[in-house]
Design brief:
With 538 residues, the chain is of the alpha/beta class. It has 14 helices and 16 strands. It binds 1-deoxynojirimycin. The site of 1-deoxynojirimycin has 10 residues, from loops.
Length: 538
């Protein structure tokens, strides 16, 4: 059995991002050091040893900037500062440096499609009035119909399930575009000042030592200047995946290359050829693989998803990414315990039954599957603890997705609940003071880090061991091995094999192989039971 190694990673490894394990930190819910009920940077700094022990290569911080939190921080009021509830810029710099000392790089989250309505640019545009240069930084238009009382076009909200308009009218009569909430006005990316500002923001963070940038809503920035109705079926699409975007990202790449920085784009596009365009050598380094995240727990479909992913990345030479969950989607353990194990924003509903024991077994197997695949793997905070989606009482829900759907979509708070660190401590060790900003459900302490820490069978132990063993797969390509229906088996050279059994019948493991790690116990005959994965070596 290979021994986990926690030695600091090679500081000069320029290709680190091609096979990295990247841990997503949602600061607000990570660890609350000052007892105000909200996680903070000091909380993250105190837990860096935990993250180093987990063995991750980088931390991606969801937006940590000053924000009115109308959309969990994705409404940014100042891109060059830290929200006072989280800490200070000086503290962020310390955090970046301390993490780096432990071999952990930092990725910040930039939100270029929109700003907060409290951002100085929008404040100025609101007061400057119609026809002003300040308004040209956004999409302001007169309304339609008598008195201009109707929104300028028919675009739908980008929050699935939302029936709310994407236009809001100011008292002076003009409307402004916001693909998300009214507090998130969209920027006009045809304006040179918008481009200039974002390149400066990138430099600002690269100068502070960050290694990468996650780009929010990366395929939505460019808009058809005519803002045509979707009902007229305009082609190309007026706001999704427009060709002008590639020019933006080419200039971003030039900035990143100067600092040896990398990008990961949030690109939700079903068309794999269009998706791969963002990953051309002079554009983004990587993009999230949402088709894999959305894929049901089904061997044939997972295999197709993996093959399609690898095939779409190959021509552009970009590594794939593997994601099972993040701060926007139903937690893996809950999703895999349901009848429909896929993920679809449009299908989210309250009260869907789930079998958490089944979901956990599958999530453990999925962890070994993803960590064995070629490319980078994302782990969302709490995934390594096997946290389920939490039910949030209606009067505590904060997510605008819930409100903008008229209360039909449960929203995303259930995957954002503050982490449990210590079973016996107040608020399960998240913080010693006030009630956490989102309530932790009954029984949350059973997932606490200190409960899992010394338990060799815990989800945490599985993640730690698997991340430490992952380099055994080397950087070879994936080769499928013959396997019965419902079983996925592949190798990546160097004599290491991953087998995942999704079939009802137990699967034989390759003869003469040595077990490195398994997501659950083998049966009495040494076979791999259903919903279990194993890594083996010759
Ligand atoms: C994607 C982010 O992940 C999500 O949380 C946010 O609501 C939207 N973009 C809008 O910024």
């Amino acid at each position: 059995m290979g021994q986990p190694s926690h030695a600091p990673k090679d500081h000069e490894d320029h290709d680190w991002w091609r096979s990295a394990v990247i841990y997503q930190v949602y600061v607000r819910s990570f660890a609350d050091s000052d007892g105000d009920g909200t996680g903070d940077l000091a909380g993250v700094r105190a837990r860096l040893p935990y993250l180093a022990e987990l063995g991750v290569d980088a931390l991606w911080f969801s937006p940590w900037y000053p924000s009115p939190m109308k959309d969990g921080g994705y409404d940014v009021a100042d891109y060059r500062a830290i929200d006072p509830a989280f800490g200070t810029l000086a503290e962020a710099e310390k955090l970046i440096a301390e993490a780096r000392e432990l071999g952990i790089r930092t990725i910040v989250d930039i939100v270029p499609n929109h700003v907060s309505d409290q951002h100085p640019w929008f404040q100025a545009a609101s007061t400057a009035g119609p026809g002003s240069p300040e308004r040209e930084l956004f999409h302001f238009r007169p309304g339609r119909g008598p008195g201009g009382d109707l929104p300028p076009n028919d675009w739908p909200s980008q929050f699935a399930g939302s029936t709310e308009p994407v236009w809001t009218r100011l008292p002076d009569g003009e409307w402004y575009l916001h693909l998300f909430t009214p507090e998130q006005p969209d920027l006009n990316w045809a304006h040179p000042a918008v481009r200039q500002e974002h390149e400066d923001i990138l430099r600002f963070w690269f100068e502070r030592g960050v290694a990468g940038v996650r780009i929010d809503s990366a395929a939505l920035l460019a808009k058809d200047p005519d803002l045509p109705d979707l009902a007229t079926r305009p082609r190309p699409h007026p706001f999704v995946d427009r060709d002008e975007l590639h020019d933006v990202y080419r200039s971003w790449r030039a900035v990143a290359d100067h600092y040896d920085g990398v990008f990961v784009g949030e690109v939700w596009l079903p068309d794999t050829e269009r998706f791969a365009r963002y990953l051309r050598p002079d554009e983004l380094h990587t993009a999230f693989n949402f088709s894999f995240l959305s894929c049901p727990w089904d061997a044939a479909r997972l295999r197709t998803s993996i093959d399609t992913t690898l095939a779409e990345h190959a021509p552009v030479g970009a590594p794939a990414t593997w994601v099972l969950c993040n701060h926007d989607v139903t937690r893996t353990v809950t999703r895999y315990g349901r009848e429909d194990t896929g993920f679809d924003f449009a299908a989210k509903a309250f009260g869907v039954p789930t079998d958490l024991a089944l979901g956990t077994r599958r999530a453990r197997a999925a962890a070994l599957l993803t960590l064995a695949l070629p490319g980078a793997v994302y782990v969302y905070q709490g995934e390594e603890l096997g946290l389920p989606e939490a039910g949030i009482p209606a009067d505590r829900i904060q997510d605008p997705m819930y409100f903008r759907s008229g209360g039909t979509d449960p929203g995303r708070d259930g995957c954002r609940v503050p982490l449990p660190w210590a079973a016996g401590a107040p608020h399960a060790g998240f913080g010693a003071g006030e009630e956490p900003w989102l309530p932790q459900p009954a029984g949350w302490e059973s997932y606490a880090v200190d409960r899992q820490q010394d338990d060799a069978d815990s989800v945490l132990a599985l993640y730690r061991r698997a991340i430490a063993l992952r380099p055994r797969f080397g950087d070879g390509p994936l080769t499928w091995l013959p396997a019965p229906e419902g079983v996925l088996a592949f190798t990546r050279a160097e004599g290491v094999t991953c087998v995942v059994n999704l079939a009802a019948a137990p699967a034989e493991l390759p003869a003469r192989s040595r077990l490195l790690i398994a997501s659950g116990p083998l049966d009495d005959e040494g076979r791999l039971p259903q919903d279990t994965a194993a890594w083996l070596t010759d």
